[in-house]
Specification:
Helices cover 51% and strands 21% of the residues. The chain has 585 residues and is of the alpha+beta class. The chain has two domains: 10-300, PAS domain (Beta-Lactamase, 2-Layer Sandwich); 429-584, Heat Shock Protein 90, CATH 3.30.565.10.
């Protein structure tokens, strides 16, 4: 078991370890490539620095070269036979040396004997010196030497002095102080040094490199030897230096020939910036690769975890599928039963609405019979009177009775129309309804009952019969206001004064208030409950459905109905949305 677990762990971490090793190898390749590119760029800049230092040294030494060439033909050097001539020439050479900061300026005859010198030294011979021998051949001679006992480094320029016939009469030698040349650029650049033909460092901006030869141990600034090793990286030569506080530990070495001053210019540049650039490039690439690998590893682990969780979930789902199927079948059966119950409830609600209508009609039947019987009796009377007037040859009075009979017939037709619309049991679409006309119809339907119960109705339609359009159904709204008027009349049966006020207010919402002067609402919180009634038990005057049906009808129109008590009775307020073309669309 442990062996299988260990194999699983090794198999799991094998790919991340291989990826890490691949990233490390890639980082090494990038570092090597970046290091070589940085060395190329560093070499270009360093060659420019070396060329600048070489030009500076050559230019400063060239001043002394030109001084030797120009002074060699001075008239004061043409005649040096007497001591006075030599003293005069020495004075002149001393003036030249003082003005040019040369260490010495002297003139030697063809045998090398010094005849005049700015330092006043006369007699020593320079025969055998390379620069002098070169001048005796008619060319410009150069050389280097360390002057004793001071140990000062000097650079010699020897210019030949020609006779009128073309021969060489002597040589003028200018001795330049190398230390003065170094003063202007010492320490301003990386380690730069110039080696002579013998390979010895003769000029440098680092004093610890002076007089060092290739192959020897580098001299240290404290007197201790400094070791170095050479190795090549591509086309570049790298020096590994240890033990020096003035030289870089790893330096790029470059060299350039300077035949004009017979030297080789060399430079040592610290390669630490190039190594840092390469390291940054390698680190950036390795970081990106590791970040990508980490994200990939995490995604793989997450996928593996999700796969395991998915397997567990599938097993659980499969285990619960049968139970869910049983539950689903039960839910379908319950849904069917609920749909059947909702359909039965809807039918019951429609039956209740119709029952409310019939109940209201039953309460108003006696008054409606009176409303129809009275016009019928009047029609009979007007008809008999009309016949009598015709017999008396009085057609005008007979025509007046006929007009009255027509008006009575119109009144009866209007009452019957309202009764038929109120009593029919059919669905009615919602649309534009004239709210004032609806209230007029409700008033006409209840007029007989109110007159029989001696109830005064105060209702003033809008001015000039202007319609007030609301959103709803005409028949259902008529039923709402018939119920409210009948309830108000029922509430005032036990008192001598009975009055109902209907008010229509327009605005953002249409508001109709039906107010009575009765005893008020006993239990406002229950007034819209079905079968709630304040009448005696067993009373045939109502079922307690009027307000409940009215509440449902107003809600179906998107309106609101509420009841409250006032100081003089109860008031019911019906709020409806005004009809508009935008709302209808």
């Amino acid at each position: 078991m442990k062996q299988g677990k260990g194999h699983h762990i090794w198999h799991r971490w094998r790919i991340p370890l291989g990826f890490a090793l691949a990233v490390a190898g890639l980082a090494m390749v990038v570092w090597s490539y970046g290091y070589r590119q940085a060395l190329d760029s560093l070499a270009e800049r360093s060659l420019a620095d070396l060329a600048l230092a070489s030009d500076r040294v050559s230019t400063q030494l060239q001043i002394y070269q030109e001084l030797a060439v120009l002074t060699a033909d001075h008239p004061v050097l043409e005649q040096l036979d007497t001591p006075e001539d030599r003293q005069r020439a020495a004075k002149r050479l001393r003036e030249v040396a003082d003005k040019t900061a040369a260490l010495d300026v002297f003139y030697a005859d063809p045998t090398g004997q010094v005849l005049a010198s700015a330092e006043g030294v006369v007699g020593p011979s320079v025969a055998g010196q390379d620069y002098f021998e070169r001048a005796m051949q008619g060319a410009l001679g150069t050389g280097q030497a360390v002057l004793l006992p001071e140990g000062r480094r000097a650079y010699f320029y020897a210019a030949p002095s020609f006779a009128p016939g073309g021969g060489v009469l002597g040589a003028l030698v200018v001795v330049a102080d190398v230390q003065d040349v170094e003063q202007t650029w010492r320490g301003s650049l990386p380690a730069v040094f110039f080696t002579n033909l013998s390979g010895e460092v003769f000029i440098s901006n680092r004093p610890e490199l002076l007089f060092w030869r290739r192959g020897d141990v580098l001299p240290g600034g404290t007197g201790d030897p400094v070791s170095y090793q050479e190795r090549r990286i591509g086309a570049h030569e790298i020096w590994q230096i240890s033990g020096s506080a003035y030289l870089p530990r790893q330096a790029l070495h470059l060299a350039v020939d300077l035949p004009v001053i017979a030297m080789v210019g060399e430079i040592l540049v610290d390669v630490a910036p190039a190594r840092r650039i390469a390291a940054l490039q390698a680190a950036a690439l390795a970081g990106l690769c590791l970040a990508f690998g980490t994200l990939l590893f995490l995604a793989t682990e997450r996928r593996r975890t999700l796969a395991r969780a998915n397997a567990v979930l599938e097993s659980r789902v499969e285990a619960r599928t049968q139970a869910l199927q049983v539950t689903n079948s039960q839910l379908r059966r319950e849904v069917r039963e609920r749909q059947e119950a909702e359909a039965a409830l809807k039918r019951a609600q429609e039956d209740l609405v119709q029952a409310g209508k019939l109940s209201a009609l039953g309460q108003m039947s006696a008054g409606i019979s009176h409303e129809l019987n009275q016009p019928l009796m009047a029609i009979q009377q007007y008809a008999e009177n009309g016949a009598a007037f015709l017999a008396r040859q009085n057609p005008e009075r007979a025509g007046d009775n006929l007009n009255r009979i027509a008006r009575m017939a119109d009144r009866m037709a209007r009452i019957i129309k309202n009764l038929r619309a109120f009593a029919r049991n059919e669905s009615e679409p919602m649309g534009r309804v004239d709210l004032a006309q609806v209230i007029e119809a409700a008033v006409e339907l209840t007029a007989a009952r109110l007159e029989a119960d001696h109830v005064t109705l105060d209702w003033t339609p809008p001015a000039a019969g202007a319609p007030v359009f609301a959103w709803g159904g005409e028949v259902r709204l008529t039923q709402v206001f018939v119920n409210l008027i009948n309830n108000a009349a029922d509430a005032m049966l036990e008192q001598p004064e009975r009055a109902i006020t209907i008010t229509l207010t327009t605005g953002a919402r249409l508001r109709v208030q039906v107010q009575d002067i009765g005893p008020g609402i006993k239990e406002p919180e229950k007034m819209f409950d079905p079968f709630y009634s304040t009448k005696a038990v067993g009373s045939a005057e109502g079922l307690g459905l009027g307000l409940s049906i009215s509440y449902g009808l107003v809600q179906s129109f998107g309106g609101h109905i509420r009841g409250s008590n006032t100081d003089a009775g109860a008031v019911f307020t019906v709020e409806l949305d005004p009809w508009s073309e935008e709302g209808a669309a």
